[in-house]
Structures are given as structure tokens and as C-alpha cells.
């Protein structure tokens, strides 16, 4: 797409005078008794991101519609606090979490909120506050070089990395747009040149290695630069933001939309970074739509930006995002970025299920899109969001694996199984192909560590990623997937990992059975492994169970480890093991093993074993068996951690040594209830008597026998074999089926 129409569009904006009013229609209609004198409109400075008419509608609605009334009150309190403190624009010195870092963040919020309140009230005090902050930045910004606390990332000016400078620009340019026509020509010219013009040049032409990336850091940069272009009436800034510094669309916003999202709206770095990147994508897109509607930005890629909003919502359980890759676990649906995204998506689709998400979020943005949400909620149009089983394909063309989501019930108390069959996720990705997580009863039961980071906590290395993020969190042993010879997949080399992704197999979603499978090649030389995960219902079981089959084949004898990281208090250990009572050894010396204490270690055994634990009043029994002798180790994270950076979390590791091939089979059963108040236990024992397995080169069957004597089984050929006949015998019973899978109830 080109910007051939851009000059005429900006000329049109510059040539239209909206006309000044002594009192805004909104203030007059509301009978305001305060000083609410709007400055006469400047033809070349009128708002470009929100029109004067939209501001008037918001001014009225912000005193009528409950959610907007609350948001306005929150903003008024926030800005009042900032105004009492006065204009504080310190010389940048601190990393994330430090005083100057946080003060510049407070300033960006004050600029946006005070600018918004000026438009809602007409009170010049708000416009003057924005002006005074920005004039202070006009004094400071031209004097700045690289931030003194910069680390390995590209240094910013106001902040330790350019990413934070870009976020500052995206936020502040919106507040400036709201007051720009209220400022004197001299103040406006100075702020244009020495704050926003300088910052836009720094984040683009002076930092090309970041600006031209296909990455969320670059998305924030191009959004800030492009929005600045609209506000300053600078077509060049808009052009480089959309099409890259070279103008050939090999980088820039349009290229990022094309390369960072899959056709299903899945973002390459995973849900945590999807919600973060979502804000600049949708906010800049809204600005493009308003200023260049002919580009049809929300229709690009078959409407992928709107899909990205709903995909972000789907990538959550209990209001929190699936914590894969470099995720911080307390981020969820109520994050500011998704609040913006839901409002923008609803305003364009009128999808009533998004209103239920907005209601859960508990707040809406003070924007025209937020007004649409507030009106929809006031009219009781909200419908439940349809959380459902699905595969979110990964990669620009949808051919680089995907995230399989298997669900039962709602997202607050039901069951959700996540199978991570995605591509690497760039530098924020972990080495954990075919990893899985399980959520139940509002809890993360089978867990993922996420990232080793304490965001903006200065005491923890200034809030940046800790060394343990590389030495532990990214390593394969920190996840619920296969480790070969105590080394991480791809030997933890990013350049290699980015060239390989799983091959998706089955996805079945039918009553009583939801199943996903995938195969991984290239994670280890000469090793191919396939995993099948299923949620299975049975009338004799009150809740669905998880069936897990991991098959691995190597061209040599190797050591296989299959970890299970879980949350809860161990109830019973269903295998003989040597317990580390008085002292603990460390499991290994690298690839994450150096961070694991060994609590118990069993000898080699061929047969079924189990482990049970309790979490939030519910019991979980994990039964497992291998087709060759194996060890079972109970471990805990936290070894070799002198600064106490790691959380102490348990795991079970199943180990097979000196074998070329192995099948790991397991069943996870939720059951029962413990009520500590009433001191009662219900169904504290497993309802499964035992599990068994048989397999050949083409297929496998997993048999589950209940305490009641009932038997059911799952037959599966992960490779497909649509027309192939399968016949396997388990405990004197023959299981025969044709095709990729079958269920047997006896």
C-alpha cells in the first residue's frame, strides 16, 4: 500500500477550521459552572486522532454512562494528584523501577489523561498542565544522549531501552493531540520540534536497527512515529511508519501485520507478548482508519487485527493469559492493552460477546471506542464469550505449528489443556516444543514457569530479565516436554530453533473426547518425538481426565527425561524411592539441571506408578507407565540460586537411560474435595484402578480400568493412517480400529 493520497488528506485536515466556542456544547449542555473556556480552534492544530464531534459526545456520555462516569472520576483523581505535585521532569538516570523511570511513566499518563480531561471539560488548567510538562521536556530532551542505565538492549533517551521511549511517545502524542490547538503558536512550534519531532526522528532514522525490525519493540516505535506524523501533519513520518525507512514495505507497520500474526490472529511471541503488542497495533490502526480510511487497515490480512483481539482472549484461563514463553503470570484480560483492544474491536464488529469481556475488565478507555462499549453495556447487549476448543495456527501463513487449546466447561472453574506446538517465538521463546499445561478449578495445575523476571522491581536487577531466565526458565527441563541427554532442545540456540517447528497432527473435538497431536523433528539430532494429549469424559468419572502419550525414537541409545511440573501439596508417592531427608544433591551441572534439588529418586522399574497431590481443595492423581524400565525423581527448583531469584516449585521427572526408543504413557485424574473449614474429605482416593498400554509402529492404545470395574480405552495413530487397520492386545483384550483414532467403552 502506498501513501499517494496522504498529502491531500493532510491538506484537508489542515484546511478545515472547526470554529471556536466560548463554552463547548458539552459543557453548556451539562450546565457546567466551572471555568470551561475552550481556546479558539487553530486550523492547523485541530485534533487528528479523535474528532471534535467525538470529544463532545464523550463529554456528555462521561457524565451519564456508569462505566465512563467511573473512568472520568478515576482520571480526575489521578490528574489532580499529578497537578498538586507539579511539573517534575527529571534527568533520566534509573533503570526500570527506579525513580526517574517511574516519573517519566507518570508523566506520559498525565499528558494523556489531562489532555483527555481538557476535551471533556474545556478547563484550560488541564491544557496548561500538559503544555507545561511538554515545555519542560522541550528543555530536557535536546540535551539527552544514550540513557546511562542502558544494558544490552538498544538504549533510549528517557528510558533505559528504546521500547519505553516508544511507549511514552504513543501515550503522550494522544494527549498532545487533544490540547495542541489550545496552545500558542510559539509553544506549539517548540513542542512539535523539540519533543515530538526529535523523538520521532530518534526512534526511526536514528535507530534504524529497531525501527525496521519485525518485532513488538518496532511495532511500538512505528505506531508512535506514525501517530506523531498525523498530529504534526508530517506525511514523511506516516510513510516510514507504514512502509519502513526504505519505503519498500519490507519493514514498517504493514509488514509487521503481515509477518507477526498468523491467519488465526496468533502472535508469534505468545499470549503474554500478544497482549503487549496489541495496543500499538490497534491504536495506530484506529488512527490510520480515521486519517486514511482508504487504506482499509482493519480489513488487511482478512481482518487479522480484529482476530488478534479475540485470539488474545481465547489464550487465557481464569482471566490470566497462558504463561508460555517469557510470560509474567499476573497478566490477564484486565490489562490496559486488552482493554483498548476489546473496545476497538467491539466498535468495529458490534460483537456482543466482547461486551462480556469488557464487563469482566471493569473499565473502558475514554475514547470513541470506549463510548461504543459503554453504550452496548448500558443497553444490556452483552453475551457470554464462547471459550472453546481450537487450534491457533502459528506463522505468517499458518504453517509453523500452533497452540492447541482443549476445553471443558467455562474458563473460571472448568478444565483447559494447552498443548504448545508453536514455533520459537523469537528471542522471547522457550525451548519447549510439545510442552503442555493444565488448568482446573480456577488453578494452574500442570504449570509452566514463565519468565524469571520481577518487572520494574529495582531490587531484582532493575526489573529486567534475570540471568536465571536463560539458565533455567528457557531451558527444556523447566517445561513439561522431552529432554534428551540432559541438554535442551536445539542446544538452546535461538538461530537453530527459529528454523524448526512441530508438524501438527490430529485435532478432534467431539462429545466426550477432545484430542490433539503433533510431531517434532530437529529439536535433537537423530531424534523424532510425537505427543498425543486428550481430554476424555466418562460417565463414571465426575470430571474429565487427561491422557498423555509421548513417543520418542532416536538413531542411537540415549537418556530421556520427561518432566511434569505441578502445583500443589504432595499427598502420596506411589513408588519406592530413596528420600533426601537431611541433605539434597543437585541433579546436574547445566541446561537447567543445575537449578534442581533432588528430593527422591527411585530405582529402575517396569510397571505402573503414581503420584497424587492436592491444590485448592481438589485432589489430582497422576498415573504413569513406560514400555521400558525407568526411574522416577522428585525434584524442586532453587538450587544454585544465591540471590534467591527462583520460585521453589516441585516436579516429577521420569527418566529412561540407554534406550533408542520409549513410550511414556500417563493419565491425570482430578477428583474429590477437601473442605478445611468443615474438615471433610470427599472422594480423596482415585477412581482409577490402573492404566495399561500397548503399541506398535503404527498406533497405540491406552486402557483405563476404573475401581468400579468399568474399562475404557483410547486407540490412536498420531501419524494419521486414515485407512489403515489397527489391532492391539492389552490384558487379553483385542482393540481393533480403522483410521487415526477410536474410543472403546466396555
Give an overview in words.
This protein is of the alpha+beta class and 746 residues long. The protein folds into 2 domains: 23-210, Glycosyltransferase (Alpha/alpha barrel), CATH 1.50.10; 393-745, Beta-galactosidase, Chain A, domain 5. The protein contains 19 helices and 28 strands. The strands form 6 sheets. Strands 8, 9, 10, 11, 12, 13, 14, 15, 16, 17, 18, 19 and 20 form a 13-stranded antiparallel β-sheet that branches. It has a 5-stranded antiparallel β-sheet with strand order 3-4-5-6-7, with no helix packed on it. Helix 4 (66-85) crosses helix 5 (99-121), helix 7 packs parallel to helix 10 and helix 14 packs across helix 15. The protein is elongated.
Keywords:
746 residues; alpha+beta; 2 domains; 13-stranded antiparallel beta sheet; Glycosyltransferase; Beta-galactosidase, Chain A, domain 5; five-stranded antiparallel beta sheet
CATH topology of the largest domain: Beta-galactosidase, Chain A, domain 5
Task: Give the fraction of residues assigned to helices.
Answer: 25-40%
CATH classification, class level of the largest domain: Mainly Beta
Principal-axis shape: elongated
Number of domains: 2
How many E strands?
28
Hey, roughly how much beta strand do the residues contain? 25-35%
Structural class: alpha+beta
Biggest sheet character: 13 strands, antiparallel
CATH architecture of the largest domain: Distorted Sandwich
Give start-end ranges of low-pLDDT stretches: 1-36
Distance between the termini: 61 Å
* Count of DSSP H/I helices: 19
Evaluate the radius of gyration.
28 Å
